[in-house]
Design a protein that fits this description.
Elements lengths: L8 E3 L4 E2 L4 H23 L2 H9 L13 H20 L6 H17 L26 H16 L6 H4 L2 H26 L11 H12 L2 H13 L31 H18 L2 H17 L31 H18 L2 H15 L17 E2 L23 H11 L5 E4 L4 E3 L5 E7 L2 E9 L6 E9 L5 H6 L3 E2 L8 E4 L4 E3 L16 E3 L2 E4 L5 E8 L1 E4 L11 E6 L2 E6 L7 E3 L2 E3 L7 E3 L16 E6 L2 E10 L31 E7 L11 E2 L2 E2 L5
Parallel strand pairs: 5-10
Antiparallel strand pairs: 1-4, 2-6, 3-24, 4-5, 6-7, 7-8, 8-9, 8-14, 10-13, 11-14, 12-13, 15-16, 16-17, 16-25, 17-23, 17-24, 18-19, 20-22, 21-22, 22-23
Helix pairs in contact: 1-3, 1-14, 2-4, 3-5, 3-14, 4-7, 5-7, 5-8, 8-9, 8-10, 9-10, 10-11, 10-12, 12-13
Protein name: Glycoside hydrolase family 127 protein
Keywords: Hydrolase
Organism: Nesterenkonia aethiopica
C-alpha cells in the first residue's frame, strides 16, 4: 500500500498498531509465524529452486505452478513492510527475514536477463518469452515484483538500522533497480506495439503504485493503456472463454462483475488507481458500477467472493451457494484492496463496511490462530460427510498449496494493513478508516502530536481517543521540565471516525451516547465527525445481534438464517453441539449438524435477554459467543434408510416430516475463528424452523 492521491484522501504513514489489540496481535503472529513459515515453504516447495534453475544453481526439474515467482515477490513485499515498521520503531529486522531478503534479491539479480526480463518459467526448458500472454503470467508476476519494490521504496534508507546494514541497504537498492529494468522493458515493448494484456490482471495497480513512489510518468501511462486494452478479446480463444480473463468487454462498458473473481477484482483495483491519478470520473464510475454488481448480487455474507469451483469465478446474480461457494482467500483480499481504494477515492462509508466484512470474516478465516495453516477456498458450509475435495478446497486448513498464491498474499496484506488505518482528507481532516487500536501521527499548521486510539473491535464497541501534543524544545514550561508531550493541547485538525459495519451509536440515554459528544460533533453519512481541538473522547458503538435472511432470489439460501453481531458473521460448528440431545424424551444418537435448525428466531436487530432468541453469553476462542435456540429435525425414514421398504430418504412425501426434538442451545463461533478446535462440520446459514 502506498499514498493514494484522491478526491477525498490519502493514507497516513507512521501508524502503529497497539501490540495488545486484536489486529496488533494478528500483525505480530504474521511477523513471527506466518512470514517465517512462508519463507520455509518457498524453499520446501521449490519456488526458489525454480529461480535457481535459471542461474544454473539447481539441476532438478521445475515444480509447482508456472507463476511461482509471484510467491517469492509477495513474501519480499511483506518483509519490506515489516522492515519499514521495524525501522520506524528503531528496532532491527528479524535475522531470518533479513537473510531471506538479501539472498532472494541476489538470486533475482543473477537470474534477470540483460534486457531486464525475469521469469523463471519462460526462461527455462526452451520456452519463448511473451509467446503466451493468456497463460504465462509474465506481467502478473511483474506486478507482484513491482509491489515488492514499492514496499521497499517506503523503507527509509537513512534510518539508523538500515543505514548501518550495508547488505540490506544494497538489497533494497537492487530490488528497486531490477524492477525498473523489467518495467522499462515492458514500456519499450508497449511503445513498439507489442501486446500488453496479461491473462491475469495485477500489473495495472502495481504500476500505478510504482509511479507514486518513483515518479516515472510512463509507468502510469502504461497502466492506463493496460486497462484500456483489456476487453477487446485480444488474448484469443480459450476453453475458459474471454469473460474468464475479463477480456470480453472493456471495463468502461462491462455490465457486471464476471469471470475469475481474483482477476476481476485486481483489474478493478488497477482501474480505480488509474482513474484517481488521471482524474477520470467516467472510469471511476465504471469501477463503482462493477463493485456494486459484485457486492449487491454476488458477494457472500462473509465478504467472500466467487461462487463457482469451476473457473474460481463469479456466478450469476444471487448465485451464492454456501457449501459450494469457492470464496478464494485471494479474492477476499483483492476485494478488500478494491474497497479500500474506493473509500479513499470517494469518502463513502459503504466501502469501509465492505472492508470490515472481508477482514473480520473471510480474510480472518483464511489462517489459523497459529498463523501457519491456511484456507484457499473458504466456503460458508462444511458438510459432515464431505466428498469430492480437491487440493485447493480441503475440509480443513493446510500448511501450503501447490497453487500457493493465498498464504503469501495474506502475509503481505497483514504486514501492510496499518497503512490503511487512517487518511488525510482533502479538506484537512484526519479520517479513521479502520477504527482500530494504535497510534496515529498528526501534524498541521506547525502543530503536531499523536492520536492514540483504543478500540475493542471487533468484539466490543468501545472506542477511546486521546490526543497528545508534542512539545517543541525550548518553548514554554514543558520544555524547561523536559516533558515529551502535553495532553492539554487539542488535535489541530478535525477527526472523522468511520462507524463500523453493523454498529450504531447509543440513543443518548447513557454516558457514551450521542448526548455525550462534544459541541460541534455530528453523525453523518456513516461517519462520526469531531471538531478541531479534540483532547479525549470515549464512545460506545452498539454491536447489534441481527438475524438475517437472504434475498428471495438466492435460492440456495431460502429458508435459512445467518446471525451477525456488528461486523462479525457467526457460524455453528459441530464441536459445539451438546453430547446429549433429546427428542420427545428419548436420547438421539448420531446427530449431525445437518439435522439441526434454528428454533423460532425472529428477524430483529436487537440483543435479547433470556432464552427466546440469540443471546451474547460467554466466550469461544476468546471471542464473545452468541448462543442460539436450536432443535433437531429429522424426516421419516432417516432411521430406516437401509430398509428396502422405506420411503425414499432423499425425497420423502409431503407431510412426512418427523416431529421436532426438544429445544436446546449451542454457542455460535465467529466465522473467522472456525476450524481452530479440530476438524468437523460448520455452517453459516442455518435452516430456520419457522420456514419449514
Amino acid at each position: 500500500m502506498t499514498d493514494m492521491t484522491a478526491a477525498w484522501g490519502r493514507s497516513v504513514h507512521g501508524v502503529h498498531l497497539a501490540p495488545e489489540s486484536w489486529l496488533g496481535r494478528w500483525e505480530h503472529t504474521n511477523r513471527t509465524a506466518t512470514l517465517p513459515h512462508c519463507i520455509e515453504q518457498l524453499e520446501v516447495h521449490g519456488a526458489l529452486n525454480n529461480l535457481r534453475r535459471v542461474t544454473g544453481e539447481h539441476q532438478g526439474p521445475r515444480v509447482g505452478f508456472l507463476f511461482s515467482d509471484s510467491d517469492v515477490y509477495k513474501v519480499l513485499e511483506a518483509v519490506g513492510w515489516e522492515t519499514q515498521r521495524a525501522a520506524e520503531r528503531g528496532r532491527p529486522l528479524d535475522a531470518e527475514l533479513r537473510t531471506f531478503t538479501v539472498e532472494a534479491v541476489a538470486l533475482l539479480s543473477r537470474a534477470q536477463r540483460e534486457d531486464g526480463y525475469l521469469n523463471s518459467f519462460c526462461q527455462t526448458d526452451g520456452r519463448v518469452p511473451w509467446e503466451n500472454m493468456r497463460w504465462h503470467h509474465e506481467l502478473y508476476c511483474l506486478g507482484h515484483l513491482a509491489q515488492a519494490a514499492v514496499a521497499w521504496a517506503h523503507v527509509e534508507p537513512a534510518a539508523p538500522e538500515i543505514a548501518a546494514d550495508a547488505e540490506l541497504l544494497a538489497a533494497r537498492t537492487e530490488l528497486i533497480a531490477l524492477t525498473e529494468r523489467f518495467v522499462e522493458l515492458v514500456v519499450r515493448r508497449w511503445r513498439a506495439g507489442e501486446p500488453i494484456v496479461c491473462g491475469h490482471a495485477e500489473a495495472e495497480s502495481a504500476l500505478v503504485d510504482l509511479y507514486r513512489v518513483l515518479g516515472a510518468p510512463e509507468y502510469l501511462e502504461l497502466a492506463a493503456a493496460m486497462v484500456e486494452a483489456r476487453g477487446h478479446d485480444t488474448l484469443g480463444p480459450d476453453g475458459f472463454g474471454a469473460a474468464y480473463f475479463q477480456d470480453h468487454v472493456p471495463v468502461r462498458q462491462a455490465p457486471e462483475a464476471a469471470g475469475h473473481a481474483v482477476r476481476q477484482l485486481y483489474l478493478l483495483a488497477g482501474a480505480a488507481d488509474v482513474a484517481v491519478e488521471t482524474q477520470d470520473d467516467q472510469l471511476l464510475a465504471a469501477v463503482v458500477r462493477l463493485w456494486e454488481s459484485a457486492h449487491r448480487t454476488k458477494a457472500h455474507v462473509t465478504g467472500g467472493m466467487g461462487s463457482r469451483h469451476r473457473d474460481e469465478s463469479f456466478g450469476d446474480p444471487y448465485e451464492v451457494p454456501p457449501d459450494r461457494g469457492y470464496a478464494e482467500t485471494c479474492a477476499a483480499i483483492a476485494d478488500w484492496m478494491l474497497s479500500w481504494r474506493l473509500l479513499l477515492a470517494t469518502g463513502e462509508a459503504r466501502y469501509g463496511r465492505a472492508m470490515d466484512r472481508a477482514l473480520y470474516n473471510a480474510i480472518r478465516a483464511a489462517v489459523d490462530e497459529d498463523g501457519t495453516r491456511f484456507f484457499y477456498s473458504c466456503p460458508l458450509q462444511m458438510r459432515t460427510h464431505r466428498t469430492g475435495v480437491h487440493e485447493q478446497a480441503p475440509s480443513g486448513r493446510a500448511a501450503w498449496y501447490d497453487c500457493a498464491c493465498c498464504p503469501p498474499n495474506l502475509a503481505r496484506l497483514l504486514a501492510s494493513l496499518r497503512h490503511a488505518a487512517a487518511a488525510h482528507t482533502d479538506d484537512g481532516a484526519l479520517a479513521l478508516l479502520m477504527p482500530v487500536s494504535g497510534e496515529i501521527p498528526v501534524a498541521a499548521d506547525g502543530s503536531s502530536g499523536v492520536l492514540t486510539v483504543e478500540s475493542g473491535l471487533p468484539w466490543t464497541g468501545t472506542l477511546r481517543l486521546r490526543f497528545t501534543a508534542e512539545t517543541r524544545a525550548g518553548s514554554g514550561a514543558d520544555a524547561d521540565s523536559g516533558a515529551e508531550g502535553s495532553a492539554g493541547a487539542g488535535c489541530p485538525v478535525p477527526v472523522r471516525v468511520r462507524i463500523p459495519d453493523g454498529a450504531q451509536l447509543g440513543d443518548g440515554a447513557g454516558p457514551t451516547g450521542p448526548a455525550a459528544l462534544p459541541h460541534g460533533a455530528a453523525v453523518r453519512d456513516g461517519l462520526l465527525h469531531l471538531p478541531v481541538g479534540l483532547t479525549a473522547l470515549e464512545v460506545e458503538f452498539e454491536l447489534l445481534v441481527v438475524v438475517r435472511r437472504a434475498h428471495h432470489r438466492a435460492d440456495a439460501l431460502r429458508g435459512q438464517r445467518v446471525i451477525t453481531r456488528g461486523p462479525v458473521v457467526y457460524a455453528l460448528e459441530s464441536v459445539d453441539l451438546p453430547e446429549r440431545i433429546l427428542a420427545l424424551g428419548a436420547e438421539l444418537e448420531d446427530v449431525e449438524l445437518e439435522d439441526v435448525e434454528l428454533e423460532d428466531v425472529e428477524l430483529e436487530g436487537v440483543e435479547r435477554d433470556g432464552a427466546s432468541g440469540p443471546e451474547v453469553r460467554g466466550e469461544v476462542l476468546g471471542a464473545p459467543a452468541v448462543v442460539v435456540p436450536l432443535r433437531v429435525r429429522r424426516d421419516a425414514g432417516d432411521d430406516d434408510a437401509g430398509d428396502d421398504d422405506a420411503q425414499d430418504a432423499l425425497y420423502p412425501p409431503h407431510g412426512d416430516a418427523g416431529p421436532p426434538g426438544e429445544r436446546f442451545t449451542a454457542p455460535l463461533v465467529p466465522f473467522g475463528l472456525w476450524g481452530n478446535r479440530g476438524d468437523g462440520a460448520m455452517r453459516v446459514w442455518i435452516p430456520a424452523s419457522e420456514c419449514r
